[in-house]
Amino acid sequence: MIQSRASLTAEHTAIRRAAHQLLDVPRIFDDPLALPILGKAQAAGMRADPGWLAGGRLARRLRAFLAVRSRLAEDALKRAVEAGVRQYVVLGAGLDTFAYRNPYPSLRVFEVDHPATQGWKRERLGQAQIAIPEAVTFVATDFALERLPAVLQAAGLHPHEPSFFSWLGVTPYLDAPNVLSTLKAIAPLAANGGGVVFDYVIPPETMGMLQRVGFALLAARVAAAGEPFRGYFEPRALAGALHEMGYDSVCDMDPDELNAHFFSNRTDGLRVGEGGHILTAFRRAHYAMEFPPNK
Ligand SMILES: C[S@@+](CC[C@H](N)C(=O)[O-])C[C@H]1O[C@@H](n2cnc3c(N)ncnc32)[C@H](O)[C@@H]1O
Question: Which residue lies with its CA nearest to atom 13 of ligand 1?
Answer without folding.
Answer: 92
